[in-house]
């Protein structure tokens, strides 16, 4: 397929290096501690100075996956520290949108680390537009895969050269939706039925020998948690061995199905049938201590709150697909 002429100036941006974006704060212990608490990370080398001093690091270090966190703008969009570039590293996306490709969905993200970050490191990153694919047609629509690479550096001290500490590859699909919907539309299922279209079914979960018990339990109206026979550690998602003692022997514990909303997202776009939109998805912390991801029902997307008490319910879709979903419990 011949490429559109308007793609020429957009493709000319490939390889462009954008300026620095600085961190508001140096790597510091309070932010590490807050991040570890939120993520459920308990390794003392990140939070206990005494333990860290006896480790191979000799001092407190930050979890590697915090790399991107240090240079985020904070609550307000594009609120970067003085001296940061004013260039928009996403200008290729802006130009594609002007050509009729309004939708965007993240495809994949890859983090690479050269070393652990230490308390006191002062970071910045620069961005490079790595590539733009040929025009592609997917189930979502037609568009372009755009790949950006951010390179992170720690500022050198007293004449020492800045040190590259990691990289982030971020790829998105900028596309024209295959089936754009008007802002106000009839019920999707009714519209499809009126048009004589087959009903779109929910995708079935992938079931393996490790997860079969969970889905069989759901069909029986039970929320089962995998439990190590050797040390009785509960784990979810299910796996072949215990992460605590490495035993391969396990059984299950039946959960009460009660829990709280530990975290949540509300998916607005893309609208993937047959799911309702906006679609609230929560990370549920069960009474037993494990967590699992599930759809919330019986609550408006804008009214979900952290810490809200919920109860599991088992709902059947497409005849035989049984899914555990969670509904808020009245105070």
TrEMBL record:
Against Pfam families, the record matches this protein to:
FAS1_DH_region, OB_ChsH2_C, zf-ChsH2
Q: Where is the ChsH2 C-terminal OB-fold domain?
A: 255-314
Q: Which residues cross the membrane?
A: none
Which keywords fit this entry according to its UniProt record? DNA-binding
Q: Give the ChsH2 rubredoxin-like zinc ribbon domain ranges.
A: 215-250
Q: Please state every residue range assigned to the domain named FAS1-like dehydratase.
A: 13-155
Task: Name a GO molecular-function annotation.
Answer: DNA binding
Q: Which domain of life is it from?
A: Bacteria
Is DNA-binding among this UniProt entry's keywords?
yes
- Under what name is this protein listed? DNA-binding protein
Which organism does this record belong to? Pandoraea terrae
